[in-house]
Predict the 3D structure of the following.
Amino acid sequence: MNILLVASLDTKDDSDKYRKILISDEEIFNLPNYYTDNIEYTSETLVDENEWYKLSSFSERPYCLNILRSPILSIDFTAFKQQDLGKIEYIFSVFGDIFCFQRITPAKQIKQKMIVFGDILEIENKQSFKPFSKLFNSHVLTIKNLPDAIYHKSNDTLYFRNLNDITKIFVGIDVLFREATETEVINFLGKNFIRLSAGFSSNNVKVQNRRRISAALEILSGLSAMEIKYLSNYIRNYCPNIPFDNGQFIISSESNLKELLYGIEERYYTTTIGEERRLANSYIKR
Amino acid sequence: MKVCRIMANKLFRVLKAFSIVIWLFPIFIIKQSWSFHYSVSTILLILGSFFICILFGTISLILTSYLGKEMPIYEVKSIENADTVFLPIYFSFIVLAFSVGTMSQLFIAGFLVFCVLVFARWQFFNPLYLIFGYHCYYVVTNNGVKHIVICKKELKTPKNIQLEHLRRINNTTFIEKERLI
């Protein structure tokens, strides 16, 4: 088993940012069962504990790394030097056609005095055995067991758990949860069924609601005036705590706005048999 | 352990350069004691100096198998034999050894060559490797990067090669050698 571990450095020069760290005989990351439990990513869906998002035909997307499109040869990478520690942005391991990515924050790149106790198993050298505790100046990179993202070259799919974790790796992937721009937010808040109370303006709208506004605007653009009227009745029915006056919802806080946006996405529903009123925190289209 | 490894790497570079420079000595000794009637002691001296050259060359070759591993390569874009590139360098060695007059001059010349080799990081191809059957190739990988590969195999067809035990000498030079132990 030859697993190649490569670091990507934070450099201006894109052509020379990768460094070969080592070739390991042991597994570097634990591979979870991302194969069986996965869902195509949409910003409305939340994954369960063991589930993974996936993005298929990943290499055609603009934020795919160029390195995933070309053959990987360890000899083409410059060797990692001790001075490079502290500049790592992310690391990835390559084994066959499976790439495991992990974001490395500066806190994980340790340059300090360390005391080491007992036996040490170095991943590069199995038989290094230290019988005594020792103090030494160390350069250490700590890694988590689980990778942040896994790319499968054979079926061209990226698997991941949390989009936030990989935005630094795949630059531009955050278009997937596109936030509404300032003009879009003003446009939305200026809709004729919304009235802002004093003290609440577009400046108060936080990131989460900006994402929802982006989706809500898309929904509203496809609705007729009649349908919007139905929609506001529906929202009034499920959200009695949003003040409603003269055909307008009065928005005075972030939570009001959130409820309204959930309403526009029609996330409120009543179960058919139990007749329980519910809010869909996450949904998948059927 | 890590510190040892870094030290070993530096020591290895020095050793490799040394094992090349040391070839100046037997040639110089032959030149100085040139006559048709060799005494036994001169012959022993010449043989002894050759033996030291071969010993250091062999040690440096054995140590290469403890360098960092690389992934195997089965296909490249192009291959070019690079043995001839190094010939002028070996010739200049012989000329150098013949042109110095005294032992002290030889030491100075040897030290300068040694420094150049260490700082230019050109210490990977020992003349002894040729005798052991190693050859030098310029290899361009599918990503378009040019490397020097030292190996015993005859590399001819770029589409079908087997470089499975590559080890990194420096970022552009690799040697194919299996670990003995």
